[in-house]
Amino acid sequence: MREKPVNLNKALESFSDTWSPRIVTKVNDYDVRIAHVEGEHVWHKHEETDEFFLVLEGHFDIAIKEGEGEKVVHMSEGDTYVVPRGTFHKPSSDGASILMFEPTGTKSTGDEYEGSLPDNIESTTGHLLD
After folding, report:
1. Strands 30-40 and 22-27
2. Helical H runs in the chain?
3. Which CATH number does the domain housing residue 26 bear?
């Protein structure tokens, strides 16, 4: 646990890679993560946990599989959304910064993902913020 406050704007300025979340702090057994996002992620799901998103800057979309179809949740700065556990989803953005709450150890590509990972997508449990 950090002894000093973390300024999210400065934290976001400290790295530029996308789809590579940084762990800002912990709350109980959860990581508070921030990330820059651009382009498309992969379809994936988290079997045991919901996934909380807060858009800090820009626009962020989450495609969600529902039965035989899909819906897209469009989010702008200040919007939050929770993807329910076990739901296949695919985030995408034309460039944004987001904050997420996830149980410590949760992979960014979920417990299961479709296809192969593109070079710009890292399967990680997060990196500690410098």
Report:
1. antiparallel
2. 8-13
3. 2.60.120.10
Count of the separate structural domains present in the chain: 1
Cα 72 from Cα 40, distance rounded (Å): 13
Tell me, yes or no, whether 95 lies in a domain: yes
Closest Cα partner for 51 from 83, 88, 77? 83
Specify the 3-state DSSP secondary structure of 122: coil
Average pLDDT over residues 15-41: 97
pTM value is 0.94
Domain membership of residue 24 as a residue range: 8-128
Cα separation, 3 vs 55, in Å, equals 25
Rounded Cα distance, 127 and 81, in Å: 23
Q: Is 3 contained in some domain? A: no
- Cβ neighbors of 67 (< 8 A, separation 6 or more) are none
Cα–Cα dist 15/30, whole Å: 22
Q: What is the pLDDT of residues 58-90, one digit of tens each?
A: 999 999 999 899 999 999 999 999 999 999 999
Radius of gyration of the CA atoms of the chain, in A: 14
